[in-house]
Write a structure and sequence with these properties.
Shape: elongated
CATH architecture of the largest domain: 2-Layer Sandwich
Number of helices: 12
Strand order of the largest sheet: 2-1-5-4-3
Number of domains: 2
Length: 311
């Protein structure tokens, strides 16, 4: 079977090819109702040039286009990524059919439409045609993205959650091991945060946590990671750092968080106690590093508070 490709094609020639489809849809009321109501976008394509010789109403609605725009076009124009179309054709050539192939089409307004595509040959004598069916799953993909965001990011502060932090820490340790460099983990516990909730209320406490997240972001480089582990505990990953540089980052955080945070209920005065552990010296796994940094933080908490300590 010839490969599907793009290319212009005179409308008159197209109309000579498709009388069987056009006539069937026009004169067979049952078939017309089927094509107008089937919950899938349908295209009929010429194999040799990829020209659309039939499209149903649902396909037009999916792309926000009208039949005149779709009819006679090359199907290449509908794809967001030409590589996805090529992979679709490769699977079709290998299996002689395609079922539930995930790909993206381009909406007329420039947006992306996610869908599951199926494709098969149309067994009509003397006509080399393909049937392309497309089910719109954009709402499902958007819901999946929201669920993924909820799993990976803290809803209140919008910082990475423990799950995303773990993934980034693993990758940071791998990079440090390959490059034979150090990386540091800073375990941060807020001082005086319970008093904020008790005196100013939980809404003020939430505002304080949001402001803490902003200040922590300002204290680190863009490639580094700050995450919220839960409650008033935060953690920072900084790569390619020695003790001196990690101390500078830690002290910067302590100084930033010691500044009052204004809320509608009044000023909140907190601080931060920070424990720092290094890979690979203090631990070669996530659990070992976090335990070492956590223990260093508690030593600070029990003594001076508002300071930086090391494992």
């Amino acid at each position: 079977m010839a490969a599907v490709r793009g290319g212009a094609m005179p409308t008159k020639l197209i109309k000579k090819i498709i009388p069987s489809f056009e006539s069937l849809v026009r004169h067979d009321q049952k078939l017309k109702v089927f094509n107008d109501t089937v919950p899938a976008g349908i295209l009929v394509l010429r194999v040799d040039d990829g020209q659309v010789i039939f499209s149903n109403r649902f396909f037009h609605e999916i792309l926000g286009a009208d039949g005149n725009h779709v009819f006679g076009e090359s199907w290449d124009e509908f794809f967001v990524d030409s590589e996805e179309r090529q992979n679709l054709m490769i699977e079709f050539i290998e299996k002689d059919e395609v079922r539930n192939f995930e790909l993206r089409l381009r909406h007329k307004n420039g947006g992306i439409v996610w869908g599951l595509a199926s494709m098969s040959s149309i067994p009509i004598e003397d006509e080399d045609l393909l049937l392309f069916a497309f089910i719109d799953v954009t709402p499902l993909k958007e819901a999946e993205a929201k669920i993924q965001a909820l799993a990976n990011y803290d809803n209140l502060t919008e910082l990475p959650s423990r799950r995303l932090f773990s993934d980034r820490l693993t990758k940071a340790m791998d990079r440090a091991e390959r490059a034979e460099t150090n990386m540091a983990v800073l375990f941060i516990d807020l001082d005086g945060f319970k008093a904020v909730n008790d005196t100013l209320g939980h809404e003020a406490g939430d505002l304080v946590l949001k402001e803490v997240a902003l200040r922590l972001r300002d204290c680190i480089r863009k490639p580094d990671t700050v995450a919220r582990l839960g409650g008033d505990e935060f953690i920072v990953i900084i790569e390619h750092q020695n003790t001196e540089n990690a101390t500078i980052v830690g002290e910067r955080i302590v100084n930033s968080l010691s500044q009052p945070i204004e809320t509608p209920e009044g000023a909140a005065n907190i601080g931060a106690s920070i424990g720092i552990a290094f890979f690979p010296k203090d631990g070669k796994t996530e659990d070992q590093l976090l335990k070492a940094a956590d223990q260093a933080m508690y030593k600070v908490k029990k003594t001076s508070k508002g300071a930086v300590g090391f494992a």
